[in-house]
Amino acid sequence: MFRKNKGAAPLSGAEKKPQDANLAVRSVRVIYLIISIVAISLILSIRLVPEQLSLVEGEIAGEDVYYNGETTTYESEVATEEARNQAASAVAPLYVIDDTVEEALLGEVRGYFSSLARVALNFEAWDPAAHDELRQKIPGNYTDSVLAAMLGMSATERSNLSDSFQQLISRVYSAGVREEEVEQARQEIAIAIGSSTISGDSEAFLKGMLEGLKLSYNEAYDAVGTAAAVEAAKAAVPMVQKTVRNGERLVYRGSSVSAAQVEALQALGLSNEKSSFLPFAGLALLVAMLMCLFYFYLRTYRRHVYLKRNSITLLGVVMILILLLCKLISLFTVDAANSSSMVIGFLLPVASASMLLAVLLDRDTAIVATAILSVFIAVIMDGEMVYALMALASGLTGVICAARLNQRSQFVSASIYIILANLLVIGGWGLLWQQESRMILISMVFGLVNGLLSAILAMGLLPFLESGFGITTVIRLLELSNSSHPLLKQLIMEAPGTYNHSVLVGNLAEAAADAIGADGLLVRVASYYPDVGKLKRPHFYIENQRPGENPHDKLQPTLSALIITSHPSDSVKMLKEQHFPQEIIDIVEQHHGAGVLKYFYHRAKENALNPEDVKIDDYRYKGRRPQTKEAALVMLADSVQAAVQALSSGDKQQIENRIHEVIQGKVDEGQLNEAPLTFRDLNTIEQTFLTVLSGMHHTRISYPGQEKNTPQTEAEEHENLPESAAGTEGQSN
After folding, report:
1. Tens-place pLDDT, residues 349-405
2. Which of 55, 62, 375, 399 gives 20 to 30 Å between its CA and that of 460?
3. The pLDDT value given to residue 297
4. What letter would DSSP give residue 17?
5. For 538-542, 550-554, 706-710, which range has the lowest pLDDT when averaged over its residues?
6. How many angstroms from the chain centroid is the CA of residue 440?
7. Which residues contact 492 (CB under 8 A, 6 or more apart)?
8. Rounded to 5°, angle at Cα 407 from 401 and 409
9. CATH code given to domain 477-698+710-719
């Protein structure tokens, strides 16, 4: 439906950034990643290493060694290696098929049939010389009658016979023929010839050729593939887990220390003072791995977070801040051997980070961050799984609740759901391991406080993070969409036509945004504010004028153009003074792009003594072309709504034509070259606009006595004005 503008970039995406810009972005993000890894590792390393022992295999233990800590599970390398060897021995050898063998054989067959065709062109069917030549060129034993029959065939019959023979060969070879199966394959092809529709001399000829063919095998042992399968089987074997619980005796006094005991001591960090740096190294590796995975996840699947410096900084700050708070709370655990003191772990407010990230960034990023934070909580609490489980459950609950937040007071209801999730995890875990009812009750109290603390933290930090990092949240957008906002109230009072136009544009753009997967709420709210700059001179815009009162009739075209094109910059200035989100300011700045006020431009050329002296750039908006889908939608909805509003009738075909003209005009002018819209998106937008505007732009019946003296409709008013004043070129927009 839409045609590309010659020389313009494709609409499927914005122009590619220069390579050095991509490198700069990536370098900055890597620096952020390194800072995050270092900061998180330092936080988690506080009181990480317990008191250690120096015991080696075969040594006689001088005392009993008990484990005083929370239940810990570690991986046994010895048991795992044995399981992997068993898995490797069960792998069957692999074979690979060499397609070139079949191709060579089929090529040989085609060559023989080509020889047959050439002989048939030069000899009669019963010519003995022809038979002799065929026997020299085609392997196999044939009677004169068979050769005569082949020579007497038409070219089409010979071609069909060749194709059938090749298909029979391919059918056998496609399944694979091993070295010891070559003669069996020859027999299978012969049987296939006999069971096919080929008979008589043709069958005899093919079987004779088959006997003369030098068949080879095409399936051979794949040493590399088998080795890879062995490695894959070994890699698929999970690590063997061993669990040590609080109070368990690891080493008996007077007994020889076994390899298993040494492994347990090392896994629990109780062995060899010289290796005390190993836990820190392991911690650094764990943190680095998780954060690198998170980095690549953001870079691959959440590009809008990865590319925004504020968003990526916010993500790191929230995670580090909450981890630091959790670590400080966990330090109140005085005696690791006293289980009652470990309930402090149920107080760690991971859900606050989950809710903040869900509101400030997006749900998927918050989910992955919650999973990573849960692992770090397990590290803080000496690897005890229940704390990680509760952090994950409460965090995911917080993400789900935050996805529906549209006002700050809903953090209260979110805290209730988080409390319920905490209580379910604590109760279920306590019943599973048959803990004392007193311990379960105390833990539930801490879980209740956790839910309240998480909601209070999230609600208290949200305004600071919003303003500090310039993040536009759903809550902020809903606040800005309220008609009681000072700018909208002023617009209603001083420029009601502009306000009504903005509301209609918002509805139109939001519907199209939902249809193509853009941010509908952002589009709707942003549509309310592009024209607030018209408040400086409201009556210079057609939607705020009375019939017959157009001040542009008394002005020079250059001055009129200057007034009209200044309203986007005036709007941007007013929004910045009101500290509006940058996303909305960008849309406002770009909503006319670099469009031209063609009406005033042509009027200036008509009035000029030398039309060549009239510069088109003097009649062009000074904004950037739309950089996002949302900005492009506001531009299109703004122009389309004004253009359709100027129509005198609600005829659907007329509306559809006008919508297409406007959108095609933007494409031809290159206004959408930098927006990530595809032509499929444009078709969807056009159809959505048509559906919405067909419902808006309807006619009403005339009541008796109203046929005459009926006031002009707004559409009629637009129709009586110049094209640009009616909005099709942007004057009213």
Report:
1. 999 999 999 999 889 999 999 999 999 999 998 888 999 999 999 999 999 998 777
2. 375
3. 96
4. P
5. 706-710
6. 41
7. 483, 499
8. 80
9. 1.10.3210
Domain boundaries, the chain: 52-71+245-275, 95-221, 279-471, 477-698+710-719
Q: Report how far residue 568's alpha carbon sits from residue 670's, in angstroms, rounded to the nearest whole number.
A: 19
Residue found under tokens 């950034």: 17
CA dist list (Å): 39 to 34, 373, 506: 9, 14, 44
Q: What tokens were used for 4? A: 């590309």
C-alpha to C-alpha distance for 300 and 710, rounded to whole angstroms? 60
Question: Which of the four pLDDT bands, split at 50, 70 and 90, describes residue 720?
Answer: very low
Q: Does domain 279-471 have CATH number 1.10.1760.20?
A: yes
**DSSP label of 238:** P
Q: How many CB atoms lie within 10 A of CB 364?
A: 16
Nearest to 458 by CA among 399, 386, 377, 371: 399
Q: Which tokens go with 445? A: 């109290």
Distance CA 210, CA 468 (A): 82
Residue 242 near residue 383 (C-beta atoms within 8 A): no
The one-letter code for the residue type at 261 is Q
The pLDDT, as a whole number, for residue 616 is 76
Q: Distance (Å, rounded) from C-alpha 82 to C-alpha 88?
A: 10
CA atoms within 13 A on the CB side of 424: 12
Dist CA 502 CA 634 (whole Å): 10
Choose between 50 and 78: higher pLDDT. 78
Predicted pLDDT at 698? 57
pLDDT score of 207 more than 80: yes
Q: Tell me the two tokens of residue 295.
A: 């980095």
Indicate the residue type of 541: Y
Cβ within 8 Å of residue 55, ≥6 positions away: 61, 65, 251, 257, 261, 262, 265, 271, 272
In the block, tokens 């839409």 appear at 2
Return the closest-CA partner of residue 146 out of 196, 209, 215: 209
Q: Concatenate the DSSP letters of all residues of 351-372 into one string.
A: HHHHHHHHHHT-HHHHHHHHHH
